Every structure is written in C-alpha cells, then in structure tokens.
C-alpha cells in the first residue's frame, strides 16, 4: 500500500455511520419536524404525539478511499448524507461509529482533523466574520490552533497572493469584499489552516453553487491551479453533475446514507442529464 | 437635522459636567456635610448680592449678615473644613466660602441646620457611585452567566435560565427589600453603601443575562463560528472573538438604562429609611425629610436633590435612545 | 390543548413558588438577629423569659423545621404567625391585599386605557404636533422617579387642602402617571412597526383609513408585543405601588412589608414577598390569556 510507485492515500473512511436519536420532551406540545428524507420510526405512529423516540440514519456505513492529489466529486439528492459525510470527515460532527484515516494516521475523535482537512462552506461570505479584517480572518486558524511556530512564519501577503487577491486588501473589513473575493479569502483561510506537511484535503460543500457563472469559472480555475501547485486533494460536493463532471477525476453517487456508485470521469455514464 | 445632533451632545455635556462637579464635591462644597447648625434649621436659600445694605455696588459678591455687622464678602479658595479627595488625599481648600460667623447656604438648610448645597454634592457621590458600580456588577454577572448559558446550552443553560426566572418572578423592589432584610438594620454608612451596591447589582443580573444569552445563541449558529470550530478553535476562543463582540452594543444600551434605574433604587431605599443612613448624605436620604408634611409644604428647597436626580435620569435615558436609534 | 397548556403553567407556577419560598426562607435565616433581638437589650427581661418566648415563637427551630411548619400552617390557611401582631399572617394580610389590589388594578386599567388611544393617536399623527408634545411629556415623566412624583402630588394635595389617606384618587393618579410613559412609548413603537408592513400598505391602498385602519387593522396586529408589555407593566406597577403606599399612607401591603422588615417579623416578610410574586404571576398569566384571546396565531399553535 505504501510503495513509492503507487499514489499516496490521502483519506480513507471505513464504515462511517451517523445516527441521530431525536427525543421528544414529555412536556412539549409540538412534534419535532425532521427534514431528512429518510426517517425510520421505532414505533408505528398515527399521530406524532404518541412516539417517544425517532431515529434518523444519516450515514449508513460509508467506505471511501481517496488518493492524494485527486478530486473526488460526491453527488446525490438532498438528504442523502453528503453534508453529513463532509462534516464528519472535517471533524465538525462526531460519527457514531467507523474510522477515518488521514494519510497513515487514524483520527478518532477527529479533534486534530483540522490540520489535514478543511471545509469550505456553501456560502463562503457567511463563513467570514464581518467584523474581522482580511488579515484577521487569514490569521485566525493559526491563532485558534495556538501554533506559535506556524503563525510566525506565515505571511498574510503570501496567503492572499496564493489565491489571487492583492495584498492591499489585508486591512479591509471582510464585509467590504465582493462575493468573488470572499470566496477566494475562504479558500486562502482554509489553506492557511492546513498543515503543509500532511495530506491536504479541501472539502467544497456546495461552495460553487451560489456563485454567478463568471465568478464560478474563476474559482474553478483557481482551484485547479492550486491543486497543481500544492498537491491538494479535493472533495467536491455538489448538486450540479455537470460541474462535477468538469472538475473531478472520480464521481461518487450517494443516496440514503451510502455510496451507491463510483466511477472515474472518463467512463462517466451520468445519472440524470443536467444542463 | 441639527436638532437631532444637539441632544446627544447636550446630554453628554451635562453628564460630564455633573460627574466632574460631584467628583470635586469636597472642593466645591463650602461646608462639611455633617456639620450641624442647630441655631439655623430649615433656612431658605441665602443668595449672594452685589449691592450691600448701604446701596453700594461691589464687584465681589456679598452675603447678608443677620445683625448690624457689615455684609460678608465671598472669598475664593478659602481654607475650611478638611475633606478627602477620592478617599486618598486630604485637602482644606474650598472654592468659595465666607468668614465666620457669616453663613452661605446656597440651597438652604435641613432640620439640623446642615448646608443642603454641600450635602447634595456629597450625596451625589454616593448615589452616582452606587448607580455605576451596581450597573457594572449586574452587567458583569449577566455577561458571564448569559454567555455561558447561550454558548454551552444543555444543563448550564437550563439552570441559569431557571435562576433568572426566579429573580424575574419577583417585583424588583420587593426582591431588593427582601435581600436588604437579611442584613443588619443599622450599619455604618460606608458599609451600607457598599452592601447596597452589591445587592442592587446582584438582584439586577437577570435581564441583561437573558439578552446576552439570546445574542450569544444566535451568534453561535453562524457559519463563521462553525468555520472557526473547523480550525480547531477552543470554546473560549469562539466566545471571545466571535460571540462576545456582538454583545457590546447591547451592553452599552443596557448600561444607560440600568445606571439611572439603580440610582433610583438607592434613592427609593434611602428614602424609606432602609438605604444609606445618617449622617452620610445621599440623594435618597436627603429627600427623606419630605415625608413629613410640614416640611414638604413649606421647605421647597429640600426638593433640590429631586431635580438633580431627574436631570441625571433624563440624560442617561436620552443617551440610551440615541444608541437604540443609531448615531444621529 | 388549552387545558394542557394551563396545566403546564400551573405546574410551572407551583415549582416557581416553591423555589421562591425556599429562597426567602434561606435568605431570612441568614439574617443576623431575629424578632426578639431588640428585647434582649431590655434589662428587665430575664434570659429565662427570653428563652421561653423564643420557644413559643418557634425561633429556635432549624431551617428545615421552620419551613415544614410554615407549609403546615399554609395548609391550614394561616401561613404562619406574625410576632408583632400576634395573629395569623393571613388575617393581617387579607384586608391589605384588597387595598393593594384596588390600587394596582385601577392604575393598570387606567394607564392602559389612556396609553392605547393616545399611542394610536401619536402613531397616526406621526411627527405631528401631538406626537412631539407627547414625546416630550414621555421623556419628562420617564425621568421622574415615583418617589418624586408622589412627593409632588402630595405637595399639591396638601396645598389644596384635599389630602386624605383613604382617598384612592391621589395614589392611583401617581401610579398611572408613573406607568404611562413606558406604555405610551412601546404602544407607539409597536404600532409604527406594524404600520410599515406590506399588509398595512395594502389596507391603505384599499381605502381603509382613520380609526378603522388603526384600531381595526393595525392594533390587532401589534397585540403580541403589547401583551408581553402587559406582564412587564404589572411588575413595575407592583414595585411602584409599594413606594406610593408608603409615601401616601395607603393601607396596602407595602407599608406592612416595610414595617415587618424593620421588626424582623419573619413570616410576615416571607408571605409578603410570596404575595408580590403571586400578583406578578397573576399578571403574566393574564397577559398570556389576553394573548390567546387576541392573537389567532397562538390559538392555532396551541
């Protein structure tokens, strides 16, 4: 597995499950609404007042292996568990069971996952604190992780330059940036948080969906360039199959908490034509 | 509009002047607040004149004398009773005064013959200090507990909110008096002032705490907090850098509401005799003699502390309005 | 549905009262000195008599025993004994409660009856002369503490030789004037908020105007914040009524409470505190019922 000729493995996930148990408080009068498409009830109910416990299986044993330097796209309908998978890998959610391996290390609980994998949110602008300056936003991962060695050798100007932003923006407030600039800043911040030595995985959770075509095209070019320069590994989560087909090396389809199909791009047959 | 800009400037100026004046109470007050003059109880205000009894105009203000002696000139920077500035340094110089046995009672005297003008200045120190310190205490406790409740949720949230409910379920004056009841009835005035500050502050933490909790709760759900969590930020970092800065405006507005409210709580308590006691003056116990109808009906100058209380309240509340409606 | 809600509220209130009573007991237990503290200084009283009196009043019991005996007394309807009056507390409080309720309820109704139409008028004539005049009056009244208002009213009454302790006009007037500014401000603000919403613009476009618009259309929409204000106004009114009763000599719960504190009359203090909490809970409960009656959305949810 670790021979010098075969590509290094960036990420491996074995048997990842995530189960939600929703308890209804005995004093409440309204029933809790679930927005998951799949919902297994432990008791048959005619009206929700009688149910006490409801179980939601968001991920049902996901297995995944990702070679370094490649892009994997995960597509699927709403409620299939894509975002849950992303958050579990990124360490934002604690999976119920399963293992996550980064490079050669297993990390569970995924506390230190932030050094190896970063999530870029659906609305990159909203993931930036409007009161922060651009420099603050870039330096925040280093301050938060309290790694003094890394923060001293990090340069804000370099970080901005990497994503094509002028260094003069460093003192602007993030709320004063345009949408495209905010997206670039979010990527720059994610890169700043990643450990340059380990497997560097960037998860784009529907991040390109809310942009207009021009900005989206620029972002795609930027991401491709960065991948070449820094050997990043991407997981692209999207509704948009044509975008996935454009950017990714492999496409995986998720439905109802598991991966049902995985194909390299060249032999992609498509699930439903998207224009 | 010019009119709109006027109000915050006016109120801030008045407040600054008021606070500086009261800070310099020892210097500006001609007499010691505890000094009694049993021979001149309940005198109306004795003003200054520029024309003496013989009809001659003087540049220096004069104070009429009681008997056939000539009028007493008003002198500046006189040496009088000792006082302490900020409790640390002792001085003897007063801004103005008259020679003995001339008496300068700018706002009259109370039933013990004590100069009301001096007492009001010194009393202001007590009332305003209690207002400010109690507010700081209440906001401090409210901030701490509210952010813990809002950020961590779960059982700390439930416990703190139930506690807040307990404090809010009682009308504030009843609660204050109940807490006051558990203290000895007569305490030395300085101890009373401090204890009053503490209990007024402690009783008032609930409403700011609820506000802070709401803000922290909504800030916690923002994407940038999740992103920061994704960098491995500790809870303290998230609270400090992302959630708490959202609370500062609200806390400032709350301060402008609470300072007058707590000052009024002290006034109310001292007025009914359960606050700062004799002989230390406070705006509340300066108004206490008005409970006797003969004094209320005839000694109108005793209402002067009420004017100051009203002006202070109005200034703080107007300032609060400006915060709420944005800078004008 | 509504019955369930009422039940939940009742349980909540009972738990709250248990908490308040425990809190008050602990607080008063920590108080240095008790009712017989003063008597100790009297040289004519021998220590033996003092000890016997202590025993009789039950001042020697532990906190837990005191609490339990109080609950037993409450079950009997007595709610403890007042040391100063040597009577069951309920007997002493009952006439006072009705007096305080007279004041509080009258001022509550009066202040709301003045605040709502005046607030509507202010909002309708937004930035007109009436609005500005009312605004100035509100600021002035808001800055005036109840203490000062009561003194001024008393002064006026004495000058006019019209003052009499038993006359409710003066206390009610003072309480109403004290409560009015906040109510007016919030009513006006709530109505202005509602008046800018799309449905109000549609109503105006359809030709609804004047009193019909404001009272029929906009006021019902603003009912939600106003009912929560109702609960708060009750709280403020109860505190103010304590002061006003003490100042104007109205024989309500207030003066008794202050007296009991000074005399360290344990059970009287605790029961007065509980009573004030009861009034407040009653007020908020009333506010919830009003909300249920006036806001169809709450009816649907429940």
TL;DR of this structure?
The complex is a heterotrimer of chains A (275), B (328) and C (302). Chain A contains seven helices and eleven strands.
How far the N terminus sits from the C terminus of chain C, by CA atoms, comes to 6 Å
Largest sheet of chain C: 2 strands, antiparallel
What general form of chain C does the structure show? flat
Please name the CATH architecture of chain C. Orthogonal Bundle
Main sheet attributes: strand count, strand direction, barrel closure of chain A: 6 strands, mixed
Largest Cβ-defined interface? B-C, 43 and 47 residues
Number of helices of chain A: 7
Poorly predicted regions of chain A are 1-6, 26-52
Q: Helical proportion of chain C?
A: over 70%
Give the helix/strand class of chain C.
Answer: mainly alpha
Tell me the radius of gyration of chain C. Answer: 24 Å
How are the strands of the largest sheet of chain A arranged? 7-8-9-4-10-11
What do the pLDDT scores of chain C average to? 84
SSE arrangement of chain A, N to C: EEEEHEEEHHHHEHEHEE
């Amino acid at each position: 597995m670790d021979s010098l000729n075969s590509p290094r493995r960036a990420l491996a996930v074995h048997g990842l499950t995530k189960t939600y148990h929703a308890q209804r408080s005995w004093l409440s009068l309204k029933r809790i609404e679930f927005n998951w498409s799949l919902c297994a009830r432990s008791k048959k109910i005619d009206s929700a007042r009688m149910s006490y416990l409801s179980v939601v299986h968001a991920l049902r044993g996901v297995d995944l292996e990702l070679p370094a330097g490649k892009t994997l796209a995960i597509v699927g309908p709403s409620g299939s568990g894509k975002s849950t998978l992303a958050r579990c890998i990124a360490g934002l959610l604690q999976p119920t069971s399963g293992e996550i391996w980064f490079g050669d290390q297993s990390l569970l609980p995924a506390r230190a996952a932030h050094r190896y994998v970063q999530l870029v949110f659906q609305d990159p602008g909203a993931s930036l604190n409007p009161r922060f300056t651009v420099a603050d936003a870039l330096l925040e991962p280093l301050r938060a992780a309290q790694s003094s060695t890394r923060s001293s050798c990090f340069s804000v100007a370099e970080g901005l330059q990497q994503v094509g932003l002028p260094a003069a923006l460093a003192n602007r407030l993030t709320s004063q940036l345009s949408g495209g600039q905010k997206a670039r800043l979010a990527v720059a911040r994610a890169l700043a948080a990643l450990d340059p030595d380990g497997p560097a995985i960037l998860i784009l959770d529907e991040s390109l969906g809310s942009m207009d075509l021009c900005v989206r095209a620029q972002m795609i070019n930027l991401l491709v360039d960065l991948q070449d320069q820094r050997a990043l590994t991407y997981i692209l989560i999207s509704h948009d199959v044509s975008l996935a087909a454009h950017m990714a090396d492999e496409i995986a389809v998720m439905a109802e908490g598991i991966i049902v199909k995985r194909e390299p791009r060249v032999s992609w047959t498509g699930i439903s034509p998207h224009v | 509009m010019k009119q709109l800009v006027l109000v915050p400037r006016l109120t801030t100026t008045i407040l600054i002047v008021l606070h500086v004046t009261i800070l310099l109470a020892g210097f500006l007050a001609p007499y010691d607040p505890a000094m009694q003059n049993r021979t001149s109880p309940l005198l109306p205000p004795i003003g200054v004149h520029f024309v003496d009894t013989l009809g001659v105009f003087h540049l220096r203000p004069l104070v009429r004398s009681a008997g056939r002696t000539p009028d007493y000139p008003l002198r500046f920077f006189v040496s009088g009773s000792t006082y302490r500035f900020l409790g640390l340094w002792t001085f003897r110089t007063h801004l103005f005064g008259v020679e003995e046995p001339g008496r300068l009672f700018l706002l009259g005297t109370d039933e013990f013959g004590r100069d009301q003008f001096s007492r009001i200045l010194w009393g202001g120190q007590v009332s305003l200090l209690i207002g400010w310190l109690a507010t700081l205490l209440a906001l401090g406790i409210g901030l701490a507990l509210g952010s813990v409740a809002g950020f961590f949720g779960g059982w700390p949230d439930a416990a703190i909110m139930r506690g807040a409910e307990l404090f809010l379920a009682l009308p504030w004056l009843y609660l204050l008096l109940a807490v006051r009841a558990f203290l000895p009835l007569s305490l030395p005035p300085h101890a009373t002032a401090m204890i009053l500050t503490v209990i007024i502050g402690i009783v008032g933490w609930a409403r700011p705490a609820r506000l802070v909790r709401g803000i922290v709760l909504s800030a916690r759900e923002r994407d940038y907090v999740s992103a920061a969590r994704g960098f491995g930020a500790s809870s303290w970092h998230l609270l400090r850098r992302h959630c708490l800065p959202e609370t500062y405006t609200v806390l400032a507005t709350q301060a402008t509401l609470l300072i007058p409210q707590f000052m009024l709580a002290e006034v109310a308590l001292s007025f009914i005799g359960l606050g700062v006691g004799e002989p230390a003056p406070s705006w509340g116990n300066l108004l206490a003699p008005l409970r006797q109808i003969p004094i209320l009906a005839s000694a109108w100058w005793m209402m002067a502390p009420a004017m100051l209380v009203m002006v202070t309240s109005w200034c703080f509340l107007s300032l609060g309005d400006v915060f709420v409606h944005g800078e004008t | 549905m509504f019955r369930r809600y009422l039940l939940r509220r009742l349980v909540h209130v009972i738990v709250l009262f248990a908490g308040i009573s425990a809190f008050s007991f602990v607080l008063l237990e920590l108080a240095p000195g008790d009712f017989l503290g003063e008597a100790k200084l009297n040289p004519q009283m021998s220590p033996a008599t003092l000890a016997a009196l202590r025993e009789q009043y039950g001042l020697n019991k532990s906190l837990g025993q005191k609490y339990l005996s109080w609950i037993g007394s409450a079950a009997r309807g007595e709610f403890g004994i007042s040391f100063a009056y040597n009577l069951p507390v309920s007997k002493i409080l009952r006439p006072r409660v009705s007096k305080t309720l007279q004041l509080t309820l009258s001022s509550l109704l009066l202040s709301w009856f003045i605040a709502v139409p005046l607030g509507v008028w202010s909002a309708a004539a937004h930035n007109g002369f009436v609005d500005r005049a009312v605004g100035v009056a509100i600021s002035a009244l808001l800055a005036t503490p109840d203490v000062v208002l009561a003194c001024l009213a008393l002064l006026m009454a004495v000058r006019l030789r019209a003052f009499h302790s038993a006359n409710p006009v003066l206390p009610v007037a003072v309480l109403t004037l004290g409560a009015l500014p906040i109510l007016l401000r919030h009513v006006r603000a709530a109505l202005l908020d509602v008046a800018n919403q799309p449905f109000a613009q549609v109503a105006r476009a359809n030709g609804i105007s004047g009193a019909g618009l404001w009272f029929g259309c906009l006021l019902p929409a603003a009912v939600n914040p106003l009912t929560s204000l109702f609960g708060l106004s009750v709280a403020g009114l109860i505190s103010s009524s304590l002061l006003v009763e003490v100042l104007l000599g109205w024989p309500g719960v207030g003066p008794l409470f202050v007296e009991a504190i000074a005399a360290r009359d344990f059970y009287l203090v605790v029961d007065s505190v509980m009573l004030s909490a009861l009034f407040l809970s009653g007020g908020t409960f009333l506010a919830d019922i009003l909300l249920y009656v006036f806001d169809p959305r709450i009816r649907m949810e429940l």
